[in-house]
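Troubleshooting entry. The earlier prediction with FE2/S2 (inorganic) cluster gave an output that would not parse, so I re-checked the input for stray whitespace and re-submitted. Clean input:
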Amino acid sequence: MAGTRDVSGWRSRFPELGVEPLSIEPIVSGDLFELERERIFKRVWLKAGRVEELPEPGCFKVKRVDVAGTSVILIRGKDGTIRAFHNVCPHRGNRVIPETDNETFGKARADYLTCRFHGWVFDSTGAVRNVPSLEKFPPWFDQCDYGLKPVSCDVWEGFVFINLDPEPRQGLIDYLDGMASHFAGYPYHEGTAHYRYTAEFNCNWKVALNAFTEAYHVETIHANTLPWYAKIDHEDLKFFGPHRTSTLYMRLVEGAKVAEPAPIDGLALRIMQNSPRQRFVMDKLPADINPDRRGNFLFELPTFFPNFMIHVYSGGGGDPGMLYFTHQFWPLAVDKTLWETTRYWRTAANASEYFAIAYANAIHRNAHLEDTATMEDTFAGLQSGVLEHMPLMDDEVMLRHQDQVWHEYMGLEKNRT
Ligand code: FES
Ligand SMILES: [Fe+2]
């Protein structure tokens, strides 16, 4: 009965987040989406890659950032530094590196990138190294003024971030706030075997993000793939500036009958648990994640504002050995989202490990197919105009924080319906 419930849990810990329902307007409004491009995605630090993707000087990655209307080249220079540039030739605007997909990889020959239109050559610092027929340009033309347009770029724990603001308001570490130390020190660099899935959904990016931002759905959405999860405890909630993180612990209901894993699950599990280099070691967790080293740690559930998640993982969801997995939700339009998820393991040392990783990867994908199955339906429901707001329960508190931060960045008054 409304008004009679106990105000407890996160509500009482974080009263500033309120208990009111959230407005649907930020999710369905095309005008607000256009504003999001300017006020959020062209201003904040966005994860764009991992250092392992650029192992040697000359290696590059082109990342399309449709929400900001650009495409960015990340390239490792001879000095080992990773720099970022708009993938736009300063001569007449051609893509310096043709894109083959949302992400395009390659290696520059001798550290040089050549625009295929008229052959201008750039080095990995963005400087123009050669302009064919230079003598035919007018006297005022100085090739030094026509290097690739730089994009701010910095690396934290091997994650490469970019900021499309010509003058970022904060450096990356300042922006990451307490997340920088909370997640520091985990062996992300050992995740040399990675598997990436992408999909486009007909939904707003916040619908997709929100679906991964609470554990309320676990017992229903994941009832088939994770039958031994009796309960998920959503704990250790922390807010760091615009970011948030929490920890999921797995708890079996008292007296619950735990079924033996199916033979093939058991095989994958044993292979990884018997491998000293693959099995989960609690002490490798950053000190502030599961600080009491509780045995039922499942994974860390954060959002690096606005659209990135790093799930430091125990592999306890039936996919042993996985070091961590990430999600990123890239807006393409108010009603279209590119979802990218990547799972990271240590490279298999033998055929058994290779099998276990491939098998666990498929199991994990199945759980994510469940997660993603509601997104388009949810968005269609919100778009129908039938509802004006969403009531949230206590464990959906991270959605409240996202909504509050979103309003702050957008410079909009929170609409407390
Ligand atoms: S547009 Fe690149 S060289 Fe002309
Ligand atoms: Fe889920």
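This one parsed fine. The radius of gyration is 23 Å.
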